[in-house]
Amino acid sequence: MKNYVAPSLLAADKQRLSEEIKLAEESGAEYLHFDVMDGKFVPSVSFGLEELEKISKLHKMVNDVHIMIENPDEEAIKYAKAGADIVTFHIEALPCMGCLAKTIKALHDYGTKVGISIKPRTKVNALDPFLQDIDLVLIMSVEPGKGGQPFMKSALRKIKYLRRVIDRHHYDVLIEVDGGINEATVASCAQAGAELFVVGSGIFRHANYSQPLKELRDLARI
Ligand code: DX5
Ligand code: ZN
Questions:
Q1: For the segment 19-65, what is each residue's pLDDT rounded down to a tens digit?
Q2: Active site residue 109
Q3: Going by C-beta distance under 8 Å and a sequence separation of 6 or more, which residues neighbour residue 50?
Q4: Which residues line ligand 1 (CB under 6 A)?
Q5: So what's the pLDDT on residue 180?
Q6: How far does residue 7's CA lie from ligand 2's centre (Å)?
Q7: pTM assigned to the model
Q8: Which of 10, 43, 124, 207 has the most CB atoms lying inside 10 A of its own CB?
Q9: Among 35, 38, 64, 73, which one carries the catalytic annotation?
Q10: Burial level of 164, CB count in 10 A (0-12/13-18/19+)?
Protein backbone atom coordinates (compact mmCIF):
# COMPACT_ATOMS: atom_id res chain seq x y z
CA MET A 1 0.00 0.00 0.00
CA LYS A 2 1.34 3.43 -0.92
CA ASN A 3 1.27 5.96 1.89
CA TYR A 4 1.47 9.76 1.72
CA VAL A 5 2.25 12.59 4.09
CA ALA A 6 0.23 15.79 3.69
CA PRO A 7 1.86 18.82 5.35
CA SER A 8 -0.86 20.94 6.97
CA LEU A 9 -0.48 24.57 6.02
CA LEU A 10 -2.17 25.64 9.24
CA ALA A 11 1.17 25.14 11.02
CA ALA A 12 3.20 27.04 8.44
CA ASP A 13 4.46 30.61 8.87
CA LYS A 14 1.52 32.73 7.62
CA GLN A 15 3.83 35.68 6.92
CA ARG A 16 5.65 33.70 4.24
CA LEU A 17 3.07 31.22 2.99
CA SER A 18 4.24 31.04 -0.62
CA GLU A 19 7.79 30.25 0.49
CA GLU A 20 6.51 27.61 2.93
CA ILE A 21 4.47 25.98 0.15
CA LYS A 22 7.49 25.93 -2.13
CA LEU A 23 9.63 24.34 0.60
CA ALA A 24 6.99 21.69 1.30
CA GLU A 25 6.78 20.85 -2.39
CA GLU A 26 10.56 20.75 -2.79
CA SER A 27 10.85 18.41 0.16
CA GLY A 28 8.78 15.88 -1.80
CA ALA A 29 5.27 16.24 -0.39
CA GLU A 30 2.63 15.00 -2.85
CA TYR A 31 -0.36 16.41 -0.96
CA LEU A 32 -0.92 19.79 0.70
CA HIS A 33 -3.52 19.88 3.48
CA PHE A 34 -5.48 23.12 3.68
CA ASP A 35 -7.72 23.74 6.72
CA VAL A 36 -10.76 25.97 6.47
CA MET A 37 -12.40 27.07 9.74
CA ASP A 38 -15.41 29.38 10.00
CA GLY A 39 -15.48 30.28 13.72
CA LYS A 40 -18.86 28.49 13.99
CA PHE A 41 -18.39 24.76 13.38
CA VAL A 42 -15.09 25.19 15.22
CA PRO A 43 -14.19 28.19 17.42
CA SER A 44 -11.26 29.41 15.31
CA VAL A 45 -11.09 31.02 11.90
CA SER A 46 -8.32 29.98 9.52
CA PHE A 47 -7.95 30.09 5.77
CA GLY A 48 -10.84 30.75 3.41
CA LEU A 49 -11.73 30.80 -0.26
CA GLU A 50 -9.53 33.74 -1.16
CA GLU A 51 -6.36 32.11 0.20
CA LEU A 52 -7.24 28.84 -1.49
CA GLU A 53 -7.57 30.55 -4.88
CA LYS A 54 -4.16 32.15 -4.36
CA ILE A 55 -2.27 29.11 -3.10
CA SER A 56 -3.78 26.75 -5.69
CA LYS A 57 -1.81 28.56 -8.37
CA LEU A 58 1.47 28.22 -6.47
CA HIS A 59 2.04 24.45 -6.50
CA LYS A 60 1.30 21.13 -8.15
CA MET A 61 0.69 19.06 -5.02
CA VAL A 62 -2.77 17.56 -4.51
CA ASN A 63 -4.85 20.30 -2.92
CA ASP A 64 -6.38 18.43 0.01
CA VAL A 65 -8.97 20.82 1.44
CA HIS A 66 -10.54 20.09 4.83
CA ILE A 67 -13.53 22.33 5.49
CA MET A 68 -14.48 22.65 9.16
CA ILE A 69 -17.48 24.82 8.46
CA GLU A 70 -21.25 24.88 8.85
CA ASN A 71 -23.51 24.19 5.87
CA PRO A 72 -20.94 22.36 3.77
CA ASP A 73 -23.82 21.30 1.48
CA GLU A 74 -23.95 24.89 0.23
CA GLU A 75 -20.30 25.81 0.62
CA ALA A 76 -18.30 22.77 -0.56
CA ILE A 77 -18.66 23.47 -4.27
CA LYS A 78 -17.11 26.94 -3.81
CA TYR A 79 -13.89 25.30 -2.58
CA ALA A 80 -13.88 22.98 -5.58
CA LYS A 81 -14.16 26.02 -7.84
CA ALA A 82 -11.35 27.73 -5.92
CA GLY A 83 -8.96 24.90 -6.83
CA ALA A 84 -9.42 22.02 -4.36
CA ASP A 85 -8.65 18.57 -5.76
CA ILE A 86 -10.36 16.94 -2.79
CA VAL A 87 -12.97 18.62 -0.59
CA THR A 88 -13.50 16.93 2.76
CA PHE A 89 -16.41 18.10 4.89
CA HIS A 90 -17.73 17.03 8.29
CA ILE A 91 -20.71 14.74 8.54
CA GLU A 92 -21.61 16.52 11.83
CA ALA A 93 -21.96 19.87 10.02
CA LEU A 94 -24.65 18.78 7.57
CA PRO A 95 -28.14 20.06 8.29
CA CYS A 96 -29.72 16.85 6.91
CA MET A 97 -28.57 13.46 5.67
CA GLY A 98 -30.39 14.02 2.38
CA CYS A 99 -28.00 16.92 1.75
CA LEU A 100 -25.10 14.54 1.79
CA ALA A 101 -25.92 12.76 -1.47
CA LYS A 102 -26.54 16.13 -3.11
CA THR A 103 -23.17 17.48 -1.93
CA ILE A 104 -21.30 14.39 -3.14
CA LYS A 105 -22.96 14.62 -6.54
CA ALA A 106 -22.26 18.33 -6.96
CA LEU A 107 -18.55 17.83 -6.20
CA HIS A 108 -18.23 14.78 -8.43
CA ASP A 109 -20.05 16.51 -11.29
CA TYR A 110 -17.46 19.27 -11.04
CA GLY A 111 -14.65 16.68 -11.18
CA THR A 112 -13.56 17.09 -7.57
CA LYS A 113 -12.92 14.21 -5.18
CA VAL A 114 -15.05 13.92 -2.08
CA GLY A 115 -14.01 13.19 1.49
CA ILE A 116 -16.10 12.87 4.64
CA SER A 117 -14.61 13.50 8.07
CA ILE A 118 -15.71 12.49 11.54
CA LYS A 119 -14.81 14.13 14.85
CA PRO A 120 -13.42 12.02 17.72
CA ARG A 121 -16.82 11.57 19.36
CA THR A 122 -18.67 10.50 16.21
CA LYS A 123 -19.20 6.79 15.69
CA VAL A 124 -17.20 5.40 12.79
CA ASN A 125 -20.09 3.38 11.36
CA ALA A 126 -21.86 6.66 10.55
CA LEU A 127 -19.66 6.55 7.43
CA ASP A 128 -20.82 3.11 6.27
CA PRO A 129 -23.69 4.18 4.00
CA PHE A 130 -21.46 6.58 2.04
CA LEU A 131 -18.28 4.59 1.53
CA GLN A 132 -19.31 3.34 -1.89
CA ASP A 133 -19.85 6.89 -3.15
CA ILE A 134 -16.84 8.81 -1.84
CA ASP A 135 -13.08 8.96 -2.40
CA LEU A 136 -11.68 9.56 1.07
CA VAL A 137 -12.50 9.30 4.76
CA LEU A 138 -10.79 11.59 7.23
CA ILE A 139 -10.52 10.37 10.80
CA MET A 140 -9.89 13.22 13.21
CA SER A 141 -7.45 12.15 15.91
CA VAL A 142 -7.89 15.46 17.78
CA GLU A 143 -10.90 17.74 18.27
CA PRO A 144 -10.89 19.79 15.06
CA GLY A 145 -10.06 23.46 15.40
CA LYS A 146 -6.39 23.82 16.15
CA GLY A 147 -2.98 22.31 15.57
CA GLY A 148 -0.48 21.00 18.10
CA GLN A 149 -2.86 18.82 20.13
CA PRO A 150 -1.98 15.31 21.33
CA PHE A 151 -3.06 12.30 19.27
CA MET A 152 -6.18 10.48 20.51
CA LYS A 153 -5.64 6.74 20.39
CA SER A 154 -9.36 6.09 19.84
CA ALA A 155 -8.68 6.96 16.18
CA LEU A 156 -6.81 3.68 15.71
CA ARG A 157 -9.87 1.52 16.29
CA LYS A 158 -11.80 3.59 13.75
CA ILE A 159 -9.05 3.27 11.16
CA LYS A 160 -8.89 -0.50 11.66
CA TYR A 161 -12.66 -0.78 11.27
CA LEU A 162 -12.63 1.25 8.04
CA ARG A 163 -9.69 -0.71 6.65
CA ARG A 164 -11.66 -3.92 7.15
CA VAL A 165 -14.88 -2.61 5.58
CA ILE A 166 -13.13 -0.92 2.65
CA ASP A 167 -11.04 -3.99 1.85
CA ARG A 168 -13.94 -6.39 2.22
CA HIS A 169 -16.05 -4.46 -0.30
CA HIS A 170 -13.12 -3.37 -2.50
CA TYR A 171 -14.13 0.28 -2.17
CA ASP A 172 -11.76 2.78 -3.73
CA VAL A 173 -11.50 5.00 -0.63
CA LEU A 174 -8.38 6.51 0.86
CA ILE A 175 -8.09 6.58 4.68
CA GLU A 176 -6.67 9.86 5.97
CA VAL A 177 -5.87 10.71 9.59
CA ASP A 178 -5.45 14.23 10.96
CA GLY A 179 -4.25 15.53 14.33
CA GLY A 180 -1.22 14.86 16.48
CA ILE A 181 0.59 12.85 13.81
CA ASN A 182 4.34 12.80 14.36
CA GLU A 183 7.28 10.39 14.63
CA ALA A 184 5.71 8.79 17.71
CA THR A 185 2.21 8.18 16.28
CA VAL A 186 2.49 7.74 12.51
CA ALA A 187 3.52 4.07 12.55
CA SER A 188 0.53 2.94 14.61
CA CYS A 189 -1.81 4.75 12.18
CA ALA A 190 -0.11 3.09 9.21
CA GLN A 191 -0.34 -0.31 10.86
CA ALA A 192 -4.04 0.27 11.52
CA GLY A 193 -4.50 0.90 7.80
CA ALA A 194 -4.34 4.66 7.21
CA GLU A 195 -2.68 5.81 3.98
CA LEU A 196 -2.66 9.59 4.09
CA PHE A 197 -1.16 11.32 7.13
CA VAL A 198 -1.79 14.99 7.81
CA VAL A 199 1.13 16.54 9.67
CA GLY A 200 1.14 20.16 10.82
CA SER A 201 3.45 20.96 13.72
CA GLY A 202 5.32 17.67 13.16
CA ILE A 203 6.76 19.18 9.96
CA PHE A 204 6.61 22.96 10.16
CA ARG A 205 8.26 23.24 13.58
CA HIS A 206 11.46 21.96 11.95
CA ALA A 207 13.91 24.22 10.16
CA ASN A 208 14.15 21.85 7.22
CA TYR A 209 11.11 19.90 5.97
CA SER A 210 12.80 17.13 3.95
CA GLN A 211 14.22 15.38 6.99
CA PRO A 212 10.96 15.05 9.01
CA LEU A 213 9.06 14.15 5.84
CA LYS A 214 11.51 11.37 5.07
CA GLU A 215 11.45 10.12 8.64
CA LEU A 216 7.64 10.07 8.75
CA ARG A 217 7.52 8.19 5.45
CA ASP A 218 10.03 5.62 6.69
CA LEU A 219 8.05 5.14 9.88
CA ALA A 220 4.89 4.68 7.83
CA ARG A 221 6.92 2.18 5.71
CA ILE A 222 6.52 3.97 2.44
C1 DX5 B 1 -6.89 20.56 13.13
C2 DX5 B 1 -6.52 20.49 11.69
C3 DX5 B 1 -5.22 19.87 11.39
C4 DX5 B 1 -4.01 20.51 12.02
C5 DX5 B 1 -3.12 19.38 12.45
O6 DX5 B 1 -8.22 20.81 13.28
O7 DX5 B 1 -7.51 19.81 10.94
O8 DX5 B 1 -5.01 19.69 9.98
O9 DX5 B 1 -3.29 21.37 11.19
O10 DX5 B 1 -2.08 19.88 13.20
P11 DX5 B 1 -1.07 18.96 14.02
O12 DX5 B 1 -0.42 18.05 13.02
O13 DX5 B 1 -0.15 19.94 14.63
O14 DX5 B 1 -1.91 18.21 15.02
ZN1 ZN C 1 -7.18 19.27 8.80
A1: 999 999 999 999 999 999 999 999 999 999 999 999 999 999 999 99
A2: no
A3: none
A4: 8, 10-11, 33, 35, 66, 142, 144-149, 178-181, 198-202
A5: 98
A6: 10
A7: 0.97
A8: 10
A9: 35
A10: exposed
